[in-house]
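re: ur msg from earlier - yeah i can do the tryptophanyl-5'AMP complex, just paste it... oh wait u already did. ok heres what im feeding in:
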Amino acid sequence: TPRIFSGIQPSGDLHLGNYLGALRRFVEMQDEGTYETVYCVVDLHAITVPQDPERLCRMTREVAAGFLAAGVDPERSILINQSRVPEHAQLAWVFNCVARMGWMGRMTQWKDKAGKNAEAASLGLFAYPALMAADIMIYHATHVPVGDDQKQHLELTRDIAAKFNHDHGVDFFPEVTPVIEGTATRVMSLRDGTRKMSSSDPSDASRINMLDDAETIARKLRKARTDPDALPSDAAGLAGREGARNLVNLYAALSDTTVDAVLAEHGGKGWAEFKPALADLAVGRLAPIGEEMRRLLGDPAEIDATLARGAERARAITVPILERTYDILGMVR
Ligand code: TYM
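and the outut:
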């Protein structure tokens, strides 16, 4: 059976972008039953930028609770936090020696995050995509459901795997296929339709968090930046209207339909009518998940135990793949 791997950073609140772009697909692909699924809270990725230890610990449990509340079943999927399966970091070192500085320097996320002051960025932030490649390849995973922003990292994963295979004359690491599907692969900020919704945006009003209550969700959507014009009657009418497009996309994704179907129904309406309808839809979808997350977070020891069981199952896969990798490299053990 083909294997799926994907992960989410515990560096901030889980938000609607994470849910629609990633988490929801994780559950769908688990439920399809045609894949073996491994899902991960990537705590080692989070520390590429400074993290408060107490908060990191809390956010790791919160993201794990988010996976579970959204429908990841720890019996059918393997659910882990990255640091607990040491082979991720071990293979990442090998991949640090495969990836070229030039490849890493061309990553747009690195350029965005390091900004003008790359001298002050951590070495880990630069190497971030090599750890991500290792996350996937330590399971020989072939399919990776992600949002649009991870596409370049998955292309790099292919390049690293192919170079390793080529350098050693082996056909060991598989080719990875990104799974970037649906109407919500890039959910935008509610304050600025040209920037993606992100947990690192200082404005909490820019995103809907999985733990927001109904009132907060309605307020954030009411204040979401659009333009004064009514909804158009077809997708072509959204050209140049980024804020409007984002809300219509959200409506389509949350109601499992297409943008055209949403506009066929709501075209001509004003925002004062459409936004409350969107809020109802979002609350209907998120409130039960938020409620379950809160319940799970009431028993952190149970979450930790679930992650420990996941790590044990994961290592049955990762230990032999690391051993084989070391054999190929000529490591004496
Ligand atoms: P992270 O933690 O930034 O985001 C987790 C997932 O959510 C998706 N996502 C979005 N999708 C749509 N619209 C948005 N506004 C939005 N914001 C985030 C991301 O695309 C991602 O799928 N590097 C990864 C974590 C990672 C990983 C991996 C992923 C580490 N190792 C291996 C896949 C495979 C990251 O920072 O995602």
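cool cool. Residues 5-9, 17-18, 21-22, 42, 45, 132, 135-136, 144, 146-147, 149-150, 185-187, 196-197 surround tryptophanyl-5'AMP (CB under 6 Å). ping me if u need the other ligands too
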